[in-house]
Amino acid sequence: MAAITYTILTGTKSTEDSIKYWLNWGKAPSAAILRNAESWIYQFLRVREMRVRKTGTIAADDTTITLPTGYVEHIQLMLTGSHQCKITMLDEELFELNLAYDGATVNLVAGTPTYFTTDGTLAYLNTKAAEAYTYAWWHYATPTALSGSNETNFLTTRYPALLQAACLYWANMFRKDEAEAERWSNIAMGLIGQAQVEVDRERRNIEHQVHWDGD
């Protein structure tokens, strides 16, 4: 059987494994359904294919870092080089309590950042960078969306059943068939749960190996 691709998914009703084929609905807005399905999946799914390591430099006097492209969730932020240490993420309340102000409580003092929090576009540091610091930021990010110029991704190759279920969920949302939409939503969430079990098992194996190596 041919691998599933964007062209197949958005093909005509006679194209096997197209969204229109699954629905037997020639007028299905396939591109919109697929776009919504991918976006919906990435709200919940956290697998290794979504892990990204972003490197960069915090310039002297900077108090923020621009969030990486496609950023959806933090894993770990570390200063690298001679200043190697972890920068811990805090919620807004704890972050405000850990800001290092000067005597006038107006400007942040210069120092090595140790905490941060985020809004929609920036990571805010608890100090003004005393010098330039290099960093490595592990995080989850949304992959490039499927399109005519990006025919496949890890969903089409590793999780095709999940992608199909999510597409059918959104297709039935378009058709206003709430019962069928709920059925496919439950199927998709179950498949996401199975994927996360795999991720948890992988993490446990890594932790066990580190512990065993240290014995």
In brief, what are we looking at here?
Helix content is 40%, strand content 21%. The chain contains 7 helices and 10 strands. Helix 3 (30-44) crosses helix 6 (160-174).
Write the layout of secondary structure elements.
Elements: H1 6-9, H2 19-23, H3 30-44, E1 51-58, E2 64-66, E3 71-79, E4 85-86, E5 88-89, H4 92-97, E6 110-111, E7 115-118, E8 122-125, E9 128-129, E10 133-141, H5 154-158, H6 160-174, H7 178-214
Parallel strand pairs: 5-7, 6-9
Antiparallel strand pairs: 1-10, 2-8, 3-4, 3-10, 7-8
Helix pairs in contact: 3-6, 6-7
Describe what you observe in this structure.
The chain has 215 residues and is an alpha+beta fold. It has two domains: 6-47 and 145-214, no CATH class; 50-141, no CATH class. It has seven helices and ten strands. It has helices spanning 6-9, 19-23, 30-44, 92-97, 154-158, 160-174, 178-214, and strands at residues 51-58, 64-66, 71-79, 85-86, 88-89, 110-111, 115-118, 122-125, 128-129, 133-141. It has a four-stranded antiparallel sheet with strand order 1-10-3-4, with no helix packed on it. A hairpin with a 3-residue loop joins β7 and β8 (122-125).
Which short descriptors sum up this protein?
single chain; 215 residues; alpha+beta; four-stranded mixed β-sheet; 40% helix
